[in-house]
Amino acid sequence: MDLSSINWTVIGQLTAVTLVLLAGPFVVFLVAGRGGNL
Predict the structure, then answer these.
(1) Where would you find the membrane-spanning parts of this chain (predicted)?
(2) Is 38 a domain residue?
(3) Distance of CA 37 to CAs 20, 29, 33, 34, Å?
């Protein structure tokens, strides 16, 4: 695959969205696990 044909903007956006979707529940679980209050 030619690297110049990859749309890095789309990849960046998908990566950012994935990180947010994964980090959201993780932060909630972490706070709840520590007995903290949201």
Answers:
(1) 6-32
(2) no
(3) 21, 11, 10, 9
